[in-house]
Specification:
Order of helices and strands: EHHEHHHEHHHHH
Structural class: mainly alpha
Shape: globular
CATH topology: Rhopdopsin 7-helix transmembrane proteins
Oligomer: single chain
Helix content: over 70%
Number of domains: 1
Radius of gyration: 21 Å
CATH superfamily: Rhodopsin 7-helix transmembrane proteins
Low-confidence stretches: 1-7
CATH architecture: Up-down Bundle
Strand order of the largest sheet: 2-1-3
Strand content: under 5%
């Protein structure tokens, strides 16, 4: 497909953070630190999961893939944002914008499905503990991860193809620090009714449906925990879910607001803040949340630091 046939625009201007021109160097330093902390945090947890045989369980296999998705989503957006902080022209090429949309939407879709798979893992572990190893076997775990990425790629391909057929003949300023589907639809000078229908339909299947599945799973989990006679057992079961719940609330709350809010009525700073929360802050917080709340991860981290880690 020749993208040039569909647009007279060769590049876009990323307006995110442009309301604060005097703080560009400060933003660069802050987000550089956040990016490095996120890279180190996620890579460290992935290394711990791979190297410690006691963490070779379905829960940690899914968790390792979650951290990998977070790394991919941040790498798709943050380097471009950091580069723009250091130059006067906050631009991205048309082709670069399309690639960024595909990469970002793939990761967001994959993470939605994977978080639902992690909720199912906790449901089986707490509600059917005797059948856990049978139900959550290696094949099922790989199928869950493969399904997550497949859904993410197909969703991203659909949105990317539709977006690449739009014409842009007016303003080039994207109300964000990255390329995404909703702000591009606002800029298009062609009819975007179909695109908006597809966007909201995809949000139902990729976003709201997994979220609803997670809620139902935790209803059954809560009922199972309340039926436990041992207070220690209830505390242990609850502690295995709190980290996942914190990630789910943060991720789905910001992502669903970003993709389903009205196209007008919000300031540039609000648009930028919402995207920052779900694209940058959430991936940074995920390894911190799981490290602080999980005794097995903390023990494995200490052994890795002391050089006593058991390698698979």
């Amino acid at each position: 497909m020749d993208l040039r046939n569909h647009t007279s625009v060769t590049e876009f201007i990323l307006l995110g953070f442009s309301n604060h021109p005097d703080l560009q160097i400060f933003f660069f330093l802050v987000f550089s630190i956040i990016y490095m902390v996120t890279l180190m945090g996620n890579l460290t947890i992935i290394l711990v999961i791979v190297s410690d045989v006691r963490l070779h369980t379905p829960m940690y296999f899914l968790l390792g893939n979650l951290f990998f998705i977070d790394l991919c989503s941040m790498t798709a957006t943050v380097p471009q944002m950091l580069a723009n902080f250091l130059r006067d022209s906050k631009t991205i090429s048309y082709a670069g914008c399309i690639v960024q949309i595909f990469s970002l939407v793939s990761c967001v879709g994959a993470e939605c499905i994977l978080l639902a798979a992690m909720a199912y893992d906790r449901y089986v572990a707490i509600c059917h503990p005797l059948l856990y190893t049978v139900i959550m076997n290696r094949k099922v775990c790989f199928q869950m991860v493969a399904s997550s990425w497949t859904a993410g790629f197909l969703n991203a391909l659909m949105h990317t193809v539709l977006t690449s057929t739009l014409s842009f003949c007016g303003p080039r300023g994207i109300r964000n620090f990255m390329c995404d589907v909703p702000p591009l639809l606002e800029l298009s000078c062609t009819d975007t009714a179909l695109d908006n229908i597809v966007l909201h339909t995809a949000s139902v299947f990729i976003g709201i449906s997994p979220c609803f599945f997670i809620v139902i799973s935790y209803v059954f989990i809560a009922l199972a925990i309340l039926r436990m006679h041992s207070a220690e057992g209830r505390d242990k079961a609850f502690s295995t879910c709190t980290s996942h719940l914190a990630v789910v609330i943060t991720f789905f709350g910001t992502a669903l607001f970003n993709y389903n809010r009205p196209s007008t009525g919000y300031s540039l700073d609000v648009d930028t803040l919402v995207s920052t929360l779900y694209c940058i802050i959430t991936p940074m917080l995920n390894p911190i949340i799981y490290s602080l709340r999980n005794q097995e991860v903390k023990l494995a981290l200490r052994k890795l630091a002391s050089g006593k880690q058991t390698v698979f």
